[in-house]
Amino acid sequence: MMAVPSSTYPRRLLPLFLGLFQGALLLFFALFVIYDEPSAQAEDTNLVANQVYSTFPFFQDIQVMLVVGLGLLLTFLPRYGFSALTHNFLLLNFSMQWALVLQGLLHHFHHGQIHLDLHKLLISEFAAVTVLISVGAILGRASPCQLLVMATCEIPIYLASEWVIVTCLGVLDVGGTITIHVFSCYFGLGVSKALFKATQQPLHPKETPTTSSDLMSLVGTLILWVFWPSFVAVLCQPGDAQHRAILNTLLAMSASAITTVVASSLLERDGKLSPGHLQNGSLAGGVAIGVVADMAMPPAATLALGSLSAVVCVLGFGFLTPLLRRKLTLHDQCGIHNLHGLPGILGAAASVVAVLWWGQQALCQAAGLAVATGASLLAGLLTGAALGLPCLARPPERLCFDDSLYFKIQDQAESAGLDSSAEEGALALKERV
Amino acid sequence: MMAVPSSTYPRRLLPLFLGLFQGALLLFFALFVIYDEPSAQAEDTNLVANQVYSTFPFFQDIQVMLVVGLGLLLTFLPRYGFSALTHNFLLLNFSMQWALVLQGLLHHFHHGQIHLDLHKLLISEFAAVTVLISVGAILGRASPCQLLVMATCEIPIYLASEWVIVTCLGVLDVGGTITIHVFSCYFGLGVSKALFKATQQPLHPKETPTTSSDLMSLVGTLILWVFWPSFVAVLCQPGDAQHRAILNTLLAMSASAITTVVASSLLERDGKLSPGHLQNGSLAGGVAIGVVADMAMPPAATLALGSLSAVVCVLGFGFLTPLLRRKLTLHDQCGIHNLHGLPGILGAAASVVAVLWWGQQALCQAAGLAVATGASLLAGLLTGAALGLPCLARPPERLCFDDSLYFKIQDQAESAGLDSSAEEGALALKERV
Amino acid sequence: MMAVPSSTYPRRLLPLFLGLFQGALLLFFALFVIYDEPSAQAEDTNLVANQVYSTFPFFQDIQVMLVVGLGLLLTFLPRYGFSALTHNFLLLNFSMQWALVLQGLLHHFHHGQIHLDLHKLLISEFAAVTVLISVGAILGRASPCQLLVMATCEIPIYLASEWVIVTCLGVLDVGGTITIHVFSCYFGLGVSKALFKATQQPLHPKETPTTSSDLMSLVGTLILWVFWPSFVAVLCQPGDAQHRAILNTLLAMSASAITTVVASSLLERDGKLSPGHLQNGSLAGGVAIGVVADMAMPPAATLALGSLSAVVCVLGFGFLTPLLRRKLTLHDQCGIHNLHGLPGILGAAASVVAVLWWGQQALCQAAGLAVATGASLLAGLLTGAALGLPCLARPPERLCFDDSLYFKIQDQAESAGLDSSAEEGALALKERV
């Protein structure tokens, strides 16, 4: 494993960028952010306590999903697991803080003050999710600085897009199917297209998952699968709507899990299942159901939506991703188009059908989808072009997908105790020879 | 690693079976299943919200146990981890949906409609647990199709047995010790006996756990250990009974954890602990306590029960499993008899003692145990005979315990980067030679 | 890998010690411990149910932190993962039960009875945390018997120290920064100093983390990071105080996560991040914030505290730990001084500032810190001297950091399938040669 010559690689940009950001955040908080006044009345205290009990468990579930579940899902690259986990964690924190600032300025700025509460943190966390999804398109081939610049651009664009879609167009999307999944997918693809331009990315030798990296990644999928209902239902109206959102998500994801096995097995000539299909297809139902989760639709429609989204996800991996790579030289490392794009569009289409009798609203849903797709793709292309700046230090091809570029980490071969073992084998042989 | 000749192996049965099932489920849902009507009154809404808050966190805990905890526990087979995790996940979803249908038809069919709610999903999940436990007896030597057929048979038999035990006999068993653990253990052993007949299964070279597979499996145990109180307490009466069930489960499992170390250390001549004992014994208290968890018994009895169940579990691994294998040619891959059978019987016996002053009820508890043991063993033997059908494609011995039979997965040696490393070692040697 | 001659190693002490303890606990429970009487009134039942719903989710979160999160964090030693996970689990159970007995006798003994409830279990769990932290100083070089004796000594000393600090001095410390983190850090360092005396511990070949052990450890960090707010907030007054504690912890830990990257990157000449910094620094904010979490301080101060604690943690790893090792021959395996000591002192200092306007209270906070530091160091030194008793079987240096000393576990090289592979490589070569 070659060491990277430190002279050729700008090592100080990352701490400088993050340090300045953290300092600016501190200043911003010192000037504008306060907590709510402690309430003197016992009734108010009960109210706050109830809010804590009704929101906090959902919030924790979502944190587990993003920090542990999504982090592990990204460790399928066998020599890039530490980077994937760390970058995901870093981007979540950065984006959440950045969204907190922007949302505070835009929506919650009253008399020179921003009142912070758990609900505002939750909303910022939702904004951060878009970044975590988008980076999936360029995972392993981008430097941390590039990812941070990408997050810096994506958060305000997301907030603008979400404002247009939800506030102006009045789109119903309780689980973020359109506003989060579709938006972040096409933003990520735009970035990838602009960053890698017309050059087709060759298959990197470190890109192929191993059994153990695939296993870790599947554990991540399962964690996401378990907690997904919390993500969809947290912002629902308590009571019937929330209950329905939980049930719909559970049903859709259960249908996805089984249909993924069917589709993956039929797709491959020898009937073997592909780990990548399982890791993504099982979650497709959760992506699609978000936009209709709290609507009063028949349970059978939920099952159908969950199954269909798993099918399009698996077909996406089988046919569309290779096609996009070949025809459009579009690189999509984690297949976010199959997990977030296609099922998201499917869900949006379902929502159009679900509110068809409502006339106007159906048009709004369709318009929201168009905005989420178009605006994000355009903004992604522009962001991707900015990421090409040389100072952001995109890693050279031969150092991609490798933890040792960013971390003081043991060489992987050593790490498995291999060198010594191979040496032992060799020595044993020597004696025999 | 040899490739399986795809001509000799029926690859299309699995997707066909699952696809038809999913289609039939869709039809069934379309015809009969609806959600509760949204309630117009604010009071009702509050009621629903409270039910969500009181049930949903327990439900999520149980999902984590079954999907992540149990899944990881089964990854102790070093080359079969991906299969264990995926089959467990698939069986959970399949069995849950199948139980939903059957329970809907049997218990909740009113005026041609089945009203779906979170509680009914939870009950179906409990039914699915029996399948996940039973397959432990034949893990690694059965095809997915065999496992699915086993689930198809086990769910209705469980529902019948549970109806007899709880409804007819009035057995008290809030944590499912008799109805779930004892039942599924003897069902699984019956299947194993009938499937492998009188031939003693030889020790397979891929059967021995490695350090890293044992570590993953222990993480699974710990996840199960942490969330077990939710499993026992979720169906308790809220208030004192639920509080007591939580405390009893915590105490029993804590005693199990310590006693397992004592028993395992005393059993082995060199005093070293066996990973298998730790992975199972620590959970034995949770199995045994279920049937008495909400009863008003002294905390000391809880501790004693937890300790005793760990002792019988470890002794079971040390003496009974080898004996059963030798004398009865009974194969029990995961030792489900030691984790679910023996502690379950112990718990049932404890429940007889606990309600002894109640006369009649003590007899009922004993009768319930007899039904759970006898009926499940008989049904398991019949099911196992059916699994022997050639079309279900039991894998040949040399391909057992191997992920590559069902998954497009890297060879394990490659996956650890070994080939290249060994080659490097060899090349380095070559140069020296 | 050499086998340990079983004659030279006292194998029966561990089961004897634990078995006697478990028996004595059983006796104690039989004589003194009861549950609360079931309450007949519906109102009381509602009250109990509400307490269960408000405490139990927090309790489960803390169990996940200690059993899974902390356990995984300690698996950074590549050949000692199974031991780290098991010893952590065993010590938690042992210490919790031991604390339950002592606290029952000291605080809750009324008319010859101790009423057990979830809150008392939670308090005992907090006591157990001190042991889990302290053992980090000597991880890998101490036998299980030594760790158990250490726990036996530490729990009563903690209870005494906590009584002095909280009850006598009236120190405010809702998240245990002073009473738990600072106390256990200096206790652990005292033990380490007395146990290893003036001999500097050489770097052991098995001490260096590998990529995969570092990855598992980071997963542990992330689990701790996610659930930390529950640990800090569980004992807060429900309502505003608890809400504030959750927000403060979230903010502080988010600032820690980002600042750790800044500090670690600046510290290393080549700008690469050190896994050890990330694993610990990200949590430093949670340690520091505990003592002020429920106070009405500005959010900006929380951010500053989180950032600062990450900086001192990383600097501690970079400069102080090597210095202490060289100058004071003080051995600190997991760097508990950097994660618990320095941020804890920082948090205590912040609490002095936060209550400065309150006069008297500021002095109390400072006095509490002094007691926690001084008493624990002294007690740790005495305990460490006792651990040196030959009968406690400190493992010889060459057998340290190795699972195979205590567990019937596959050799690590074998476990990765290496021997066979290296052999295959060698054989392949042979053919070529």
UniProtKB/TrEMBL annotation, chains A, B, C:
List residues traversing the bilayer: 58-77, 89-109, 121-140, 216-234, 246-266, 303-324, 336-360, 366-389
Q: Name one GO biological process term.
A: ammonium homeostasis
Q: What is the protein's major site of localization?
A: membrane
Domain Ammonium transporter AmtB-like as annotated: residue spans? 25-389
Where found?
Membrane
Record carries keyword Membrane: yes
PANTHER family membership: AMMONIUM TRANSPORTER, AMMONIUM TRANSPORTER AMTB-LIKE DOMAIN-CONTAINING PROTEIN
What protein am I looking at?
Ammonium transporter AmtB-like domain-containing protein
The record lists the lineage as: Eukaryota, Metazoa, Chordata, Craniata, Vertebrata
